[in-house]
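Problem statement: downstream parser choked on a complex file, so we are re-checking the raw output for the alpha-D-ribofuranose run. The parser issue turned out to be on our end (a line-ending mismatch), but while we're here, posting the original submission so the record is complete.
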Amino acid sequence: MSDIAVVGSLNIDLVIRAPHCPGKGETLIGGAFGMAGGGKGSNQALAAARLSATSHIIGCVGSDDFGRKLKSVLTENGVDCSQLRTMNKAPTGTAVITVTDDGGNSVIISQGANSLLDENAMTKAENIFESSDAALFQMESPAKTVIKGLKLSRRHGCRTFLSAEPPFSLPPDSWNDIDYLILNERALSFYAGRRNHKSVSEMAQEILKRGVKCLVVTQSAKGGMIFCKGGDDFAFDSFNIRSVDNTGARDAFCAGFCVGLCEGMPLKIAARFGSACGALACTKIGAHPSMPWRHQVSALLGEAHGDDYEL
Ligand code: RIB
């Protein structure tokens, strides 16, 4: 069993279905409204636990009903919340999400208590980094916190995964602290300097030169590509599913990919495992409700490859 620390955000997602994302000045009559647990950190911690990892969340919620709800859902799913702090100075983070009829989404976040996750919280979590196989980070937490967390994890020999969304600039000496950098194509262009005339592969090579060990570029329904220092580049496929809501799909991918590698799966198999997790997360509405369970992932992989598929 793998042991994974997740440093990051916890939100309550307020979701409305709509035919398309509203444009500037547009009032749109949408469809059903729903509320669900979310936040990239909490989605990843929940997914890791459902995939059978020992999972720890390091984050902040407000002292309100949303915060209590998030903590209880994570606890019920077996996530260790000993480093989940309840803050009085800010409400629990909130995300307002439009889910369009084609299963796509747009998200706006009010960070709330997530903005209070400070560097001190990383120092307090050192014992968790020390005993974990991997630490997963995203970018809905303050930059200084993420940078410090990466450094401390690295110091304790814990493999680091950064899902860089929404991307912010990193200082030159932080790149070396990242084992696996997971980017979508928008974040890839951001880090490669928005030189869009370059190919994905050219942009990836530029980023690898900064010190990252492996770069994963996720491409939604197209699957993705992996580039590693001194290794072969390869593409991985997505699964053919009917997407009803892709909110949290990248989080499920990141958790699955991380769990897979920590369990000793070869890179290509871990990417396939992560991809199955991402696909399953698109088949249900809401982030938390759609984070996949291990048996669902095994079933999807078995269906796609037959029973001889080795994990
Ligand atoms: O990655 C999906 C998540 O992004 C949502 O759950 C929302 O809360 C935002 O953090």
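For whoever reads this later: The radius of gyration is 18 Å.
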